[in-house]
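To: structure subgroup
Subject: Chain for Friday's discussion

All,

I'm putting the inputs and outputs inline so they're searchable in the archive.
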Amino acid sequence: MTSSNRSPAARLGRTVAVLACLAVLAALAALAQADIVQKGNLRVSASAKMRPRALPRTGAVPIAVSVSGHVATADETQPPQLSELTIEINRHGHLDFAGLPICKVRLIQPASDSRALAACRSSLVGEGKFFGTITLPGATPYAMDGRLLVFNGREHGHQVLLGHIYSPHPFAISFVMTFQIESHRHGVYGTTLRADLRKALGTKRNLTGIEMTLSRRWHFGGRRHSYLSAGCPAPKGFGSAVFPLARTTFTFAGGTQLSSVLTSTCQAKG
């Protein structure tokens, strides 16, 4: 029977089936970008995505990369303190900070998010959210959450990222976590962002979640620049590629580490 001879109910049923298949494929594609790892009672869920997905086969264009991670325990008890956070980015992504203004820690610590932006907006390369807890002597831990601003900075002559965290409630909290930037010539991951959180968090605070998007474009030296640029590593003859976009590693007090490899898909142009 041809499609023109099918009854309206049959055509409707076929359409619904097709839409259901597309929904399942979309859900699977989303799941491919997320990962949940657990060790003992400790659990970390992480995800990453890249925009746009259509990228040149050769060369690179500006992109935005979003990475998130959330810490929990299987029995809902308080997780151990997060002491280090590492984000590794695929070597097909390139960092560029030529001509980008530098933000200094003293300008944003302590400061509200509005004051931090007033002082260092020209250095802004990303933003997001954070989640955590504060434990005071004799009190039950309570939740804190707020805005994360990421600024281009420099420390001891080296380029860094300054993650400014501010929460206005239940009372104002402000601190800065510094991401050291490491470049690698070999291997899957060409750039590592590493933050030692022990000094930033102290003994009372704990970071249980972070959502961060890196994206910034500017003009310098008569050229357009992007903080992150990338191409699509699809071989000739293939229109797309699945590749490890990022790897996150959460290190906790006591030495426990949980790592996630987060994949993405790109469409090759050219």
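Points worth raising on Friday:
The radius of gyration is 22 Å.
Residues 8-31 form the longest helix (24 residues).

D.
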